[in-house]
Design a protein that fits this description.
heterodimer, A: mainly alpha, two-stranded antiparallel sheet, two-stranded antiparallel ribbon, 4 strands, globular, B: mainly alpha, Four Helix Bundle (Hemerythrin (Met), subunit A), 7 helices, about 80% helix
Amino acid sequence: MDFITQHPVLVVSLAKIVGLMFLLMTTLAYLSWFERKVIAHIQSRWGPYYVGAHGLLQPLADGVKFLFKEDLTPPGADRFVYILAPVLALTLALTTLALIPFGPPSVQWLGESTLIVANSSIGLMFVFAITSMGVYGVALAGWSSNSKYPLLGGLRSSAQMISYEVSLTLAVVGVVLLSGTLNFNEMIAGQSGYYYRFIPRWNVGPQIVGFLCYFMSAIAETNRAPFDLPEGETELVGGFHTEYSSFKFAMFFMAEYANMITVSCLATILFFGGWLSPFPDSWTFMRYLPPAGLLALAVYLAYDAAVLVRGIARIQLIVVTTGALVIGLACLHPVVLSIIQGPFWFLLKVGLIMFFYVWTRATLPRMRYDQLMSFGWKFLLPVSLANLVITALVKVWPLLVNHG
Amino acid sequence: MTLPFIVFFVCAFLAVLGAVTLILAREPIHSALALILVMVSLAVLYLLLGAEFIAAVQIIVYAGAIMVLFVFVIMLLNAGVEERTDYSKLAKYAGLPLGMFLLLALAHWMAHSLIGQQIANGVGGTNAAVSTRELSAQLFQKYLFPFEATSILILIAILGALVLAKKDE
């Protein structure tokens, strides 16, 4: 006990890291299920259905499959770099999540804020520092495979990531100018308040151009459709990860999803008010949305279990139903209810942006490489630069007028 | 042995290891990777000194931008394993003692100068983080001229590169 009270920072940080890693790994696994389900329904299919109820055990089956597949290393590959590349990609993708605030800093344990692992005064800079190194995973994977397609794919995707990083960063600087800080919690706090007492004062209003530029560059930065040229099957087989198999491939896969989560979290924090509720405090009934949602989910699942599903899947559904019911009822407790507000709205916003991501992938065809490059350099970059200049002018306008 | 001390020695060791590997590695990509290791370790050392902004900029500019271009160019040119000549005699008989002398002189200076003592105290004790606001105020008020002069210098370098690249037309 002495150790815990003497080193609260160390103990709480370790606990937070372990908790975040556990949640993150589960989320990464279930994101693949989410993506397959959404795309399937958009294309009038069922998607994963047979492994567990609604295919809920499919991620587990995929994980086992990845673990037991043969791990191949192409002859002539640079073994050290070949192993380093996926490790680097996944580590860097996971590290950024440490800087994301999932709820207000007022939720504390042992005097340390619980819902953010590292509350840095320049959180945004660190996120960009870590994501700017993400290119290495792709580039080194392409180079070390000692194979033509991965090399071409790696070159392509690193060129793409370098190009879009410029407009990504420029699009975000507008928000930094508006909020006057690089700390995430202060940025979110700066977005509180409402127009006409019910329209939230989020940055997405004044920075709508910045948001669109950010989102488009973010899709390209995470190598997702319609900018997923790095893995353009028809030209490059699998792109930079062609030669990777088994768990090393799974690591690239997880890194891609982790990057998607990071980018969506950043969009939520910078443009959609982070953990702030979209409804004014006077609408107290909105506080009961998380338990109400969970209980509604439990009712739907119970209906499913009773009428539609048979066999083992039914038992599984009953377990999930009970879980949703218990958590939903626990959320009704006043203490839990006040803690859950921040994370609930944050995760809901992130989830909606993720849905938008998947929706884009299911809808839009892949762009050609020259189109991609000219779009990035000749359209996105000037627009985000203009957005930055206009924001800066609006910001200093009062100063200029007063001096003149 | 406090935690900052342990982090300092780990990162210092990694930085030196990276620097030595950079010189000894025969594969250009390995040298580039070693250089990235040096830069990231330096960034952690800056963090230890409380310079958060400098640490982030160190990673963004050096590890995230310059070294990416290095790696990119090495990949693009598909540069192979470098060829080694016999090591030059001059380096062996003059370079080695001179290098040793430089190292010792630096160590001596570090141990006795005021800055060295401040650094030694800083690593052990707690250092207040410098806020980005203060840093930018210094940069845009006190050091405005050097700052702008550097930016013009970099602009000239970019233009020079463009002129060289366009030479054929």
